[in-house]
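Many introductory courses stop at the sequence. We go one step further.
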Amino acid sequence: MRALRLDTSTRMSDITSLLKAAADGDRQAADRAFALLYADLQRLAHSRMRRSGNVTMLDTTALVHESWLRFQRAGDAVFEDQQHFMGYAARVMHSVVVDFVRTRRAARHGGDVEHVTLDTAIGDSVSRHDDEILRVDEAMQQLAMADKRLHDVVELRYFGGLSEAEIAAILGVTERTVQRDWQKARLFLSSALNP
């Protein structure tokens, strides 16, 4: 057990060093960090896609890769450690899914591609899922304006699939605070989504 803890601690230290080097522009460090974090990012993407249902044509691999491209384009993101990186990853994956739904909706309402649906139930189902994702995103934006930390707890727990302990470490609060924030956020979102 002690050896496993040492390996995990060493791995986290390595990842933290790589993330800091990547933030300084070291491309090899960024690639190495991505390789070490790939399984964790896949788990996060799987959790995110499970919550979205089959509403996008993205799969977990595509979501991980699109998110990584956004990290690289941002360029100025600095992460204290692996947990902060995973929190950021949860936020980016959420935005990737929402952007995908918005793009698909825009294309469906006058885009260049002609859509032919033979089974109208499928088209209605996709449209309802798109509407739901966008309604949740709007409610999340309202929550962010009302209380940023509540927003972050929901994003990290619901969309990121992180545990209360992981969220507490990322936000620098206690697990009990995360539990209370989760309850408050659920009430807020419930009233926003069911007026």
